[in-house]
Amino acid sequence: MTLDDPSALRAGVRDVRAAARAVQELRRAEGHLNRRRQATSRLGTTDRAAVRFIIERTNAEHRVAPIDVAKFLEISTASVTALIDRLEHARLVLVHRDPIDRRRKILEPFDPSGDADLTDPLTGRIRAIADELSPTDEVIVTAFLRRIIDAIYDESRP
Prior knowledge:
Blueprint: H1 6-10, H2 18-40, H3 45-59, H4 66-73, H5 77-89, E1 93-97, E2 105-109, H6 116-119, H7 121-131, H8 135-156
Antiparallel strand pairs: 1-2
C-alpha cells in the first residue's frame, strides 16, 4: 500500500508501518528542501520563520518586539539580535523604537503589504492541503503529528 493508494484501505489492507515511513519521508524531504534553500538563498530556515512571524503578527495588528521573535523561535536574546541584524541588513525588516517605551524596539516588515506566503510559499500550500481535510481527519492528523513533534522534542533535549 502507498500513500496514494486509497483502494488498499477500502479493501481492508493495513500497512502498520505506512505512517512511520511517511514521517521518515517527510523528514528527508524537509532536509532536502532546507539544503536547497540554503544553497540558493542567504536566508536560513530560522530567518524565514522570523520574517513570516513578523509579517503575520504585524498583519494581525500586533506590535512585534525582538523578545517576541526569540520566544516564538525558542532562541536566546543574543541569537535574536544577530538574526534581526541579518534581516535588517537584507532589507526584510525595519527596526524602530517603541513610541511608548523608548527602550524597546519594534520590528516591522520592510514591505508592509508583504504576504507571508511569499516569504515561504510552501506554508501556503500546506494550509491549502490542510483545508481539504474533513474535521474528523483534521483531529486525527493533528493528534498524530503532535505526538511526532513531542517525540522529536524529547529526543532533542540534553
